[in-house]
Amino acid sequence: MRRKLKIYTPFINAGMQEMSTYRANWLFYILGDVLACFVSFFVWEAVFISNGGESFMGFDKSDMVVYIFMSFLTGQVISSGGTYNIGEEVKDGSIAMRMIKPISYNATFLFQEIGNKLMEIGVIFIPLVAGVEIYRFAVTGDLKFDILKFLIYLVCCVFAYAINFFFNICYGFTAFVFKNLWGSNMLKNTVVSFLSGAIIPLAFLPDVLKNVLICLPFSSLTYTPVMIYMGMYTGYELLFFAGVQIFWAVVFWLLSKVIWKCVINRLSIQGG
């Protein structure tokens, strides 16, 4: 294990250096997401105003604000660019250089993204969590922060990232067959955003649809961690949703290995 960590540590450093070198590009990317987050905030503000009260579908106004911003934060933390990166490497031919190295193809992406996440935690995660808690304290007059729920939320984010990473790796491997995934990746991201509850909380959907979606892997990406952070799940519910996350993380991990073996012989190097 120590030997493997020594091999892949440079990829963590590379991820951190990439973020710091192209920090203007990254900051503008984040700014675009922040603006989208505020658009969502004002949309839901209008919904609450039109509803004529401080409550809507079991969420009060402060709950909705916390949900919006924590969904944005969780989405940033668990995001994975595996599909895009694999698609680009297949398209320009640079995948050949990665594949001739005596290291795990998946692990190189994983450890490079860990480096990215370490930078994001320092720049975005801590300040935004602090801002959310200050807002909750200002609105309710009570300190809502619960260290145990926060730690469980962090563990859920780890499993959510594992699900998202291996799902994107699985989808990215289809580039070995289809060559270009840019358009389908955009469609995939939109569908996943809806199914994960990042756009509309799954609690707002009809019960039958909600019960189906919470058993699918995508609700584990955003909805489950945010609801845990907000204290909406307790006791056996926590165990159930933790089990769902672990199940799907293992499924996509195994599926990535199966798909790799199925498509590796279909790869043809293009470009460079």
Task: Give a written overview of the molecule.
This protein is mainly alpha-helical and 272 residues long. The chain has one domain. 75% of the residues lie in helices and 1% in strands. Strand 1 and strand 2 form a beta hairpin. The longest helix has 36 residues, at 105-140. The protein is globular. The two termini are 35 Å apart.
Helix and strand arrangement:
Layout: H1 2-21, H2 23-51, E1 55-56, E2 59-60, H3 61-78, H4 82-92, H5 95-99, H6 105-140, H7 147-172, H8 175-178, H9 182-195, H10 207-213, H11 223-229, H12 236-263
Antiparallel strand pairs: 1-2
Describe the structure concisely for a colleague.
The protein is mostly helical and 272 residues long. It is 75% helix and 1% strand. It has one domain.
From the structure above, extract its key features.
single chain, 272 residues, mainly alpha, two-stranded antiparallel sheet, 75% helix
**SSE class:** mainly alpha
Q: Compute the gyration radius: what is it?
A: 20 Å
Number of strands: 2
Uncertain regions spanning at least 5 consecutive residues: none
Shape label: globular
Query: What is the count of structural domains?
Result: 1
- The level of helicity is over 70%
Distance between the termini: 35 Å
Mean pLDDT: 82
Strand order of the largest sheet: 1-2
What is the count of DSSP helices, taking H or I runs of 4+ residues? 12
What is the element string, with H for helices and E for strands? HHEEHHHHHHHHHH
